[in-house]
Amino acid sequence: MRNTTLITSALFLALFAVPGCKEDPAPNEPGEFGEPCVIGEADNTPDGCASGLSCYFGYCEELCATSDDCQPIESREHTCAVGVCHIACDSENPCPETLATPLVCATNMLCEGEEYN
Question: Which of 6, 21, 36, 71 is the most buried (most CB within 10 A)?
Fold first, then answer.
């Protein structure tokens, strides 16, 4: 009788509890502004950036023609240079912490993805 109880319990767990715990993995989609990316990946690929963005030292940054094309970021200087927006930084104005990628201030006084510094 004890074996019957164990088998019944195991079947109940397998039929009802296990399928309810399964979660679908998040899709690997191209990065949006401020999200991590892999340098060298093509646009609109899972490890690259969405259209209109470029992978700049580990995070997706906007493409631009003028600084007006760069969206404002927390009262930081966000300017266009060589067709890509750049976030300026220094010891008094560190990189923003609100983007999906951890950023650090590089020696060129521009924010870069933490892992590329």
Answer: 36
With residue 27 as reference, give the H or E element that holds it.
none
Sign of the CA dihedral 109, 111, 116, 117?
positive
Q: Domain map of the chain by residue range?
A: 53-116
The type of residue at 62 is E
The number of residues making up the chain comes to: 117
Q: How far is residue 21's CA from residue 3's CA, in Å, rounded to a whole number? A: 26
Report the alpha-carbon distance of residue 4 to residue 90 in Å, rounded. 70
- Two tokens, residue 78: 């966000």
The pair of structure tokens assigned to 47 is: 């490890």
Q: What is the pLDDT of residues 67-98, one digit of tens each?
A: 999 999 987 899 999 999 999 999 999 999 99
Of the candidates 57, 47, 36, which has an alpha carbon nearest to the alpha carbon of residue 117? 57
Please state, in angstroms and rounded to a whole number, the distance separating the CA atoms of residues 100 and 117: 17
- Round to the nearest angstrom and report the end-to-end CA distance of the chain: 65
